[in-house]
Structures are given as C-alpha cells and as structure tokens.
# Entry
Amino acid sequence: MEFETKAIHVGQDPDSATGATITPIYQTSTYTHDGLGKHKGYDYTRAGNPTRTALESALAALEGGKYGLCFSSGLGATASVLCMLKAGDEVIAGDDLYGGTIRLFNKVFSNFNIKFTYVDGTDSRAFEKAITPRTKLIWLETPTNPMLRITDIKAVSKIAKANNLILCVDNTFASPYFQKPLDLGADIVVHSTTKYLGGHSDVVGGAVITSSDDLHEKVKFYQKAVGATPGPFDSWLVLRGIKTLAVRMKKHEENAKQVAEFLANHPKINKVNYPGLKSHPQHELAKKQMSGFGGMISFEVKGDKSLVKKIVEGTKIFALAESLGGVESLIGHPVSMTHVDVPQEQRNKLGITESLIRISVGIEGTDDLINDLKQALDK
Ligand code: P1T
# Structure
C-alpha cells in the first residue's frame, strides 16, 4: 500500500459498533466488563483506548514498523524509552538535539545515575569511539534541531548492531514522509507528533515506533506504568492530521527550498542551514537517506541581537513562536527560546549563537513568505 493510502486507512476501518466512517473519539476513561475477567480488549484508557489504537497502528504503518505507541508529548515518548535503562547505564547522544531533550537527559535522568555522552553527530566514528562496557543506547536526531545537521543512520546502526546497542532516532524534523529510520537500521523511532504529524499546531503528543517485539513490550509497559498517555481527543487530532501528511510535506518542502535560496542570497545573512542546499556540508548524505529535505531552516544573520530582534519581531506572516511543523509559518530564536537549557559551551560549539534564527516554513503561498522575510530583513 502506498504511503498516502496508509495514512488515510491503516487502523481506520469503519467503526465496528456503528459503521462511523471516521474513527470516533472514544472519550471514556473506563470500560464496562461483560463479567469478571471478561472484557472487549480495553479496561482503562491509560492502558488502551480505541482512538489511540487507531493512531498507533497508522503511525507504525507510516514508519514501516510493526508497533506504534502514543504519548502525551514528544518528551513523554522520550522519557518512556529512557525508562528501559538502569542506574549505571550510559547513553551516547548526538550533540545537537532539541533543548528539552537535552534538559531531560541532563537534569532528570542524570539524577538516576544514567550517564549521557554527547558526540559530533556528523561523525559516525565518534559514536563508536565513545562506547564503553556500560553503553546501552545511542540517541540521535537527524536532521537536528536547530542546526539541521545530518547523521548517517545506516553507518551508526551498523556500529550499534556490532556492539549490541539500541539505536533510537528522533524523526520529528523529517517525518516518515521523508525519512524512515527503521529501514536504515534504527531499532526505535521517536516523534513529537505535536509537529508535522499533527500538523496544525493544535495538539501536543508523542510516539514510539519499533519492529522489535522485545522493545515494544518494554516501552508499552512504561507507557502504562508511567502514564504519559494522550487523551482520546488528542489522539484523534493527530490521526486527522496524518491523513494529509503527504500533501503537506510536499508543500512544506517546496516552500522551504525557495525560502532557503532567498535567504542564502541575502546580504544580511551569513549562513543558511538547510539540507536541501548544495552548500550544506551533508547535502549528499541527506539526498541518500532522505526522500526530501523538509520544511525547517536555520540561519545566522550578520549582526547582533538588535538585528535578530528586528527580524523576529518584524515578520507579519511568520509568527514568533516555539514549535514547528504546523501549516502556519513560525520564526524563533533558539538561544532564548527552544535551546535555553542547552549548556552554553555546547551551544557555542554547535553555532547556536545570539545571531541564529530558526524558521518552520508553513504551507502558505511561497511569494507571501519570501516577501514577509524580505520586508523584515530590509527594514
Ligand atoms: O514538545 P514535545 O511534543 O514534548 O516534543 C519534544 C521534541 C522532541 N523532539 C524534537 C526534535 C523536538 O523538536 C521536540 C519539540 N520541539 C519544540 C517544541 C521546538 O520548538 O523545537
């Protein structure tokens, strides 16, 4: 079945009780049993809910995985994967990650004696060099937030397999429409479904997808035992969102390519980070492991905070806001917004400076978006 068809149909048969064509929002916390020890597969919504089941099946199909599990946020999904670890275990992570993920690693799970080592995500051998007898998990994002760097998933997956490590890839920026980490050798895919999957900036959610029976059973246990589960309406919103994922992603990319070209040629801009640009240091790798480059761009302006302030406060269509992946365009300042909790030394090393701006290119008219950035830059 093709991607577009899966997004609309997998897990979404007409409702068996009523024939409703669209999966109903099963807005219930509990289920009446037919008798002691007899129920229809659901007993309590934290453990399972039919609207969530539909979404979990659809997401598994889109990533080419066997199992999907949904969470109340992307960080809820990440935390539930990390719950598989024990005190003394070590994680090797790519150095450029969403700031909230780094905060969760450094300020929550570190307290339980789990060690996180950050390595240059663009150098697969750096992952290998950092392995110790205590390493259990490799964590990476690609493309990364906010520098749009690319990690070679296949190369890192070979290293993970050879050393009996779990490889988890946060696929939020690419979405399964443009990249399928499981096909490239990853064991687990994590998503913030808040972003492209939901697609309309009206829901917060997360997901974990795998083809491993063992990993699925473990994360499913933590989904229920820790309880970061999405409500039925939130599950329904993401399920509705993914039906149009393919058409939205095409337009996000079409717009982003043109916006990136415009920015790359603007005299007030030093550097544009977009894997679709030939100037991107890993453009060839991105072409190899992704089927498109997505809608996220970051760029460094020639100037200090006053120019940054003028731009981010000067756009009329791009809204100054955190998050990404919705139909509407957003603009943000990672240093003071999404990456405020990343240690300064790590930020400086990556180039997450006061001069860096990040945009999530929406699906509005291309010329409107370019003209909006132009007027903000030329003010
Ligand atoms: O916000 P939440 O749904 O919990 O997802 C966390 C998360 C995980 N992974 C990546 C790559 C992310 O970008 C995020 C959330 N990011 C933002 C809110 C942001 O503006 O970058």
Observations:
- The two ends are 50 Å apart (CA to CA).
- The pocket of P1T is lined by residues 73-75, 98, 100-101, 141, 145, 170, 172-173, 192, 194, 204, 206, 322-324, 338 (CB under 6 Å).
- The chain has a mean pLDDT of 98.
- The chain has 14 helices and twelve strands.
